[in-house]
Every structure is written in C-alpha cells, then in structure tokens.
Amino acid sequence: xxxxxxxxxxxxxxxxxxxxxxxxxxxxxxxxxxxxxxxxxxxxxxxxxxxxxxxxxxxxxxxxxxxxxxxxxxxxxxxxxxxxxxxxxxxxxxxxxxxxxxxxxxxxxxxxxxxxxxxxxxxxxxxxxxxxxxxxxxxxxxxxxxxxxxxxxxxxxxxxxxxxxxxxxxxxxxxxxxxxxxxxxxxxxxx
Length: 191
Hints:
Layout: E1 18-21, E2 33-40, H1 43-54, E3 62-67, H2 73-84, E4 98-101, E5 109-114, H3 122-126, E6 137-142, E7 155-162, E8 172-179, H4 186-190
Parallel strand pairs: 3-6, 3-7, 5-6
Antiparallel strand pairs: 1-2, 2-8, 4-5, 7-8
C-alpha cells in the first residue's frame, strides 16, 4: 500500500522533477542514459521518493545507491520496500551483507545488499549465495559502484549528495541515472 504523496519532488531550483536524456553516456553498450536530478528536504521525503520509485521497478531491476554515510540510502530503500509491499523491516544490512525481503503482494522480492565491506567485485557478490535470482527480484545495492555493474546492462544508479561536516541540514540532492534502454522513460514515470 502506497502512502499519499505530500509534495512533488523538486530540483535544486524548486522546479518540479525534470530530467534530460544524455546520449552516449551509458556504459552498457547501448549508449543511452537518462538523468533526473531532484532535491529532497527531509527523511520523510526520501522515503516517499523510495515509494514513488517502487512504482516503476520490476523484477530484474538493479538499483545501485551511492552516497556518504548518513546520506539516506537505507531510508530510500525502506521506502522502496514499502512501495513494493515486502515483508520485514528494511534496515541496513551492513553486518549481514544482504537481506531478502519476500513480497507480501505477489510482486518481486527486494534483495537489499550492502557492498561496503566487499572488495572483490562481482565474484564476491556471487559468493553471497542469495536465495533469490536477479530476474525474479528487485536488487538494491548500497556502495555497489565498481562492484556489481556486470549484473545487468540496464541499471538505475542513484547518487545522494548531502552537506558534510557538522551540520543538521537534511537537504539532499538526488541524481537518478537510468543506464540502458529499460530506463528511457524514467523522467515520465516519476512525474
């Protein structure tokens, strides 16, 4: 069940979410990438963004999350779990490396991976022996850059930037980069 949206996502100028297609920037061999940049003002809005993203996710999707500690990667994933209707509380899998959240609504399971402590790339990811295969699940990998790109030519890369240092600023700049033809309509799907 999806919670109502309290406000639309806005970019750094306060404009509703927009994006640009950027031909030739993808690394999947397709030569396509779509980028959407927006501003999130609070943890609640980050979780809401996760619920909104869940509406466009399908089995087989790979989502890579990048951002500083405390940027909101797990908060976004918690919203994804709510939007996908999965079982179990979505928490950081730092100490278990991966958690599988089965669907309660006959949708895809959510596989939530924290690759922070993994250094060996895809080989080490395969050693996790996940019970759910990528074609049947939505796989979300925190700290996955340089480690999991080989899992799928089509992937959604989410970069979360926050103010660093001694600050209580909750504002985040979120850049969604859809790599490959699967994500060609990302901007429209989020509207």
